[in-house]
Amino acid sequence: MEQALIYVVPALGLVGLIVMAIKSAWVTKQETGDKTMMELAGYIADGAMAFLKAEWKVLSYFAVIAVILLAWSGMSVETSSPVIAISFLIGAVFSAFAGYIGMNIATKANVRTTQAARTSLKHALKVSFTGGSVMGLGVAGLAVLGLGSLFILFYNMYVQSVGAGVNGVEMEKALEVLAGFSLGAESIALFARVGGGIYTKAADVGADLVGKVEAGIPEDDVRNPATIADNVGDNVGDVAGMGADLFGSYVATILATMVLGREIVSIDNFGGIAPILLPMVLAGLGIVFSILGMFFVTIKDDKGDVQHALNMGNWSSIVFTGIASFFVVKYMLPETLSIRGYDFTNMDVFYAIILGLVVGTLMSIITEYYTAMGKRPVQSIIKQSATGHATNIIAGLAVGMESTVLPILVLAGGIMGSYAFAGLYGVAIAAAGMMATTAMQLAIDAFGPIADNAGGIAEMSQLPEEVRNRTDILDAVGNTTAASGKGFAIASAALTSLALFAAFVGVAGIDAIDIFKAPVLAALFVGGMIPYIFSSLAIAAVGRAAMDMVNEVRRQFREIPGIMEYKAKPEYDKCVEISTKASLREMLLPGAIALITPILVGFGFQGVFEQVSSAEMLGGLLAGVTVSGVLMGMFQSNAGGAWDNAKKSFEKGVEIDGEMYYKKSEPHKASVTGDTVGDPFKDTSGPSMNILIKLMSIVALIIAPHISQRPHTAGMSEKMEIKKEIKYEDGKKVVTETITEIKKVN
């Protein structure tokens, strides 16, 4: 029974990848349009692939250094192994490949969506969403396949091969080595998200400031030299970066739950590993239910509600997962369980999973309210655009700050509720439940950049207005779904970080984080500061790169005669080169802060203070960065999304104090400024916050055995015997086996 369930997990990941391949083949078979459309799509695809290759080259140097350090550290403690370096490398490769899958299909789906929009909105939605679903299934499938396969390998290597118990040091070692997979995934995700975000926003800001504001030409006009770089940026930032981002989030959430599950003594039919297996099983089933939910994403005609169609797909996958989790929990877990002295039942675990799904849904709904067209927050920005650029900025900042209130209250309620149900395991499994439908969430997310690219190709190809109108409908919905996805991601990151934090405390052997101790409070403040300096570096990088882009676009308008008359072709490659070099140069320092800070605190303060351990100080640092990072992520993502849709509202016309305003009006110009400020908020620094807090927690978990307050030796004096009676079916005969396991006391 145990063996069968273990192998079901990677099999479900494989199912996701098979369906992904089928959907990818369907997208590739769709019509690509005329020669001009294909030429423009080719520029975008070539630019995106050139960036990805250059990024991989830089990251390969980082990976080599990390592998050497991890291999060395794995030899110095009992609960780790040099194999953690291989685990890290596999996680990094899978994360990079997940981003490539999304970008590859997005650069094929964009032009096909444009061509589909020449016939109907329904067909355009089908092509763009199918392209997004390829990315969603690719990310989820790779994560479940990789995590499930490595767990089988490490479980056999470190636990079963020596006949060890589930709750002992051997399983701790297996999961510590598995944590390397998550570290590799999150490391690549951070660099991909920050680098891609800098790339896309440098191009976007440069294109907007010179093209729309100075030259007065439409967005994505073929005469603007930065338009190709802008569209490339949608793929490398919002697709490849986002794919690596959610791959890392997905893996970290499952891992955190597994680490806490090891502490539960479970008398079950799966050799005692049911609490460890449960999050992986939920993730695998989530792929299946996401596939089912994708069939609900359709509209009848051009008057159909695209947002409603996407919501139907999302909600159906969530409902299916919730229903299935009841049967899975009842089947896998025993009636009663306990973690760190907190007793709970299998039904309490089910309630925690449902709470996680509810929290994820509420976070998406609230974020949609604050960023969608026609809602009060966006309308307030539109209204204040009438009095100029400054009031538009003030309104957007206010909306962003206000938008943190309800999500934080929901998140706080979710944390307290899930803890009340099943202790720290409840918090972790709630996050795992929330992330179970990642394939659907990511499909909805990735659909947006594809639609945005499709609109750009339609504009640059000078297709009829009705085509651009259809792509604009998809693009506007895509902005809202992207903002909702970021809200969902930051909520899951908060729950996951709390679970990782709890796992770190257990491995590090500390009982509490006492902020009354001055060194711990100091570390708390430093942690709270990190998201601010991280955001500053990311936003400043966009500003510097955008200045270079603005100067290049101005130069081409000035020095290449005939561009404005369509008689000369701009030098698109020069702008692509500027974004590529800037993003690769500027992504390194923010990434280094996230990786090095926990190591400096963990090792740098060992033995410095007599009454305070470095592990406790590191705990304070993690608490500070988590709280500050969650708030910063919500504020920036929501403010940027609201600014963007306020600007887009002018394209159809808005009424302010009884007067209608359209594109090129003074209020519209003010909204363009707001959108320009919001661009690095929502696409560079904001979405990077969830990776930042999870990556620092994972680094802390990796180094925890090295700074632990309890010895990790086989000859510990404090031990306890746990006797477990396990019943399982062997053919037609019921066999009862009693095992005695030695468990260390923390």
TrEMBL record:
Membrane topology value: Multi-pass membrane protein
InterPro entries registered for this protein in UniProt: PPase-energised_H-pump
Record-level GO cellular component terms: endomembrane system; plasma membrane
Sample GO molecular function, one term: inorganic diphosphate phosphatase activity
Catalytic activity, reaction form: Na(+)(in) + diphosphate + H2O = Na(+)(out) + 2 phosphate + H(+)
The entry's keywords: Cell membrane, Ion transport, Magnesium, Membrane, Potassium, Sodium, Sodium transport, Translocase, Transmembrane, Transmembrane helix, Transport
Lineage top rank: taxon: Bacteria
Site, Determinant of potassium dependence: residue positions: A482
Cofactors (names): Mg(2+)
Subcellular location: Cell membrane; Endomembrane system
Family membership: Belongs to the H(+)-translocating pyrophosphatase (TC 3.A.10) family. K(+)-stimulated subfamily.
Quaternary structure (record): Homodimer.
Function: Sodium pump that utilizes the energy of pyrophosphate hydrolysis as the driving force for Na(+) movement across the membrane.
Protein name: Putative K(+)-stimulated pyrophosphate-energized sodium pump
Annotated source species: Algoriphagus chordae
